[in-house]
Design goal:
alpha+beta, 8 strands, single chain, eight-stranded mixed sheet
Length: about 170
């Protein structure tokens, strides 16, 4: 339980793809917002735990034939006053780690660097936790999923699934 809003910055440095890549075919790959950004939107909604009440999308206007939704910034405003900025791009350096997440609130900031290093800044204290390998929680998610199948409990509510799906489609269409 927290008493105030969160500020989330989620940066994804995606792989550069050619304009002919199937990913950009709206019928097959759906584009980067529908097929990839939905996961980052869902993650931010999970962290905040409140509904998105407004959003804004800004895209680059590049001179290539690659769709503009390849390099985007999505800003989400939540009902509790929290805000989230999702920066998704493929124009950075190849050596840049893929993901960085910063979550700030109540005099604390948690930084996740590519799911390999987590740093917690709490007041004047700094604590670092390094994993042996990149861990995005897939094994734990599958374990919980199979336990839910046998117990009859839901891993995620239908409302959350619908909310993320509707929001992602609205962002794609904006």
């Amino acid at each position: 339980d927290r008493s105030g809003p969160l500020v989330i910055n989620y940066r994804i440095s995606a792989e550069k793809l050619s304009k002919e890549h199937w990913f950009f075919d709206k019928e097959i790959g759906g584009g980067r917002i529908l097929s990839e950004s939905c996961h980052f939107i869902d993650y931010c909604q999970f962290l905040v735990g409140h509904k998105v009440v407004d959003f804004n999308v800004t895209t680059t206007h590049n001179s290539t034939d690659i769709p503009n939704d390849n390099d985007i910034i999505i800003t989400l405003n939540f009902s509790d006053g929290s805000i989230s900025s999702i920066t998704y791009h493929s124009i950075g350096g190849d050596s840049l780690p893929k993901e960085r997440i910063e979550v700030s609130g109540e005099n604390k900031t948690i930084v996740i660097d590519d799911f390999q290093l987590t740093t917690v800044y709490s007041g004047s204290n700094i604590e670092k936790v390094k994993t042996k390998k990149q861990d995005k929680g897939r094994a734990e998610m599958l374990d919980k999923f199979f336990r839910c199948l046998t117990s009859g409990r839901r891993l995620i509510t239908v409302e959350n699934l619908v909310s993320t799906t509707e929001l992602t489609i609205n962002i794609q269409e904006s």
